[in-house]
Structure formats: C-alpha cells, structure tokens
Amino acid sequence: MTDLQESPAVPHVDEGGDERLGYLVGGGLLIGIGWGVAVLLNLLLHAAAGSGTILIGQSRIGSPLGPYAQATLAFGLFTGLVGVVLVLWGRAGAPGPFVLPGPSYPWPGDGAATESPSAATGASGHP
Questions:
Q1: d(CA 100, CA 1)
Q2: Got the DSSP string for 62-118?
C-alpha cells in the first residue's frame, strides 16, 4: 500500500535542459524594464516636459526630478544591475540543450506514439 502523503503527485523529471536560459531571459527582462523604462523613459519624459509640465493620464510630469522620479530612477538602476548579474551568471555556466520544462510526450509520427484505438480493435470495434 502506498501512503499518498509521502509520495509526490508528479514524479521528478530531469530532462537535462539548460537552466542558463532562465537567467539570460530573466536578466534581459530586468535590464530592459529597469534601464529602459524606469531610467531612460523617466529621464526622457522629464526632458520632454521642458520648462513646463506635461500630462500623461493622471500624472503631471515636470522638468525637475522630484522624489518619485528619483526613487524610480534608483529602482531602475538597481533592477538593471540585478539583470546584469543574472546575465553574467547565466553566461558563466556550461551550455546545455534547450529543453522545455516538463515531461516529454510522444508526438504523432515520431515512432514513439502508441497505436490508435481504432487500429488496435479492428474494424468491428472489438479486440
């Protein structure tokens, strides 16, 4: 008898994929969001305001960098630096094959697929 509390619902599957891809994609996203949006877009909007203010949605953006803009700038710089660390960490590992997570299922026509039920039962539908 198997104790269901002690057995996992899904068995562990290690397909031998490349975990570096997650670091590279995650780091690239952090760089793009941190430096691209929080830093570059922030500075461009404040520069576009000139000596006055511009209204974007419910937000008024003026030329001086206020406390919210400074906090966004600092958060963007930090987020971009974390992204750089993730990319460097991903590039430092040994490369592996690109494998999607989860168990590998047979595709029709690859030779590993099972026989269709209609072919196994014959024309009458009975085995």
A1: 34
A2: ESS--HHHHHHHHHHHHHHHHHHHHHHHHHHSPP-----SSPPPPPTTSS-SPPPHH
> CB–CB of 73/39 below 8 Å?
yes
DSSP state at residue 36: I
Domain ranges of the chain: 35-92
Is the model's pLDDT at 33 over the cut of 90? yes
Q: pTM of the predicted model, to two decimals?
A: 0.62
User: Which of 30, 126, 26, 20 lies closest to 75, judged by CA?
Assistant: 30
Distance CA 28, CA 39 (A): 15
Q: What is the pLDDT of residues 72-126, one digit of tens each?
A: 999 999 999 999 999 999 898 777 777 666 666 666 766 554 544 445 444 544 5
Q: What is the pLDDT of residues 45-71, one digit of tens each?
A: 888 888 888 888 888 888 888 888 899
How far apart CA 45 and CA 114 sit, in angstroms, is 59
Strand partners, 100: none
Distance CA 35, CA 82 (A): 11
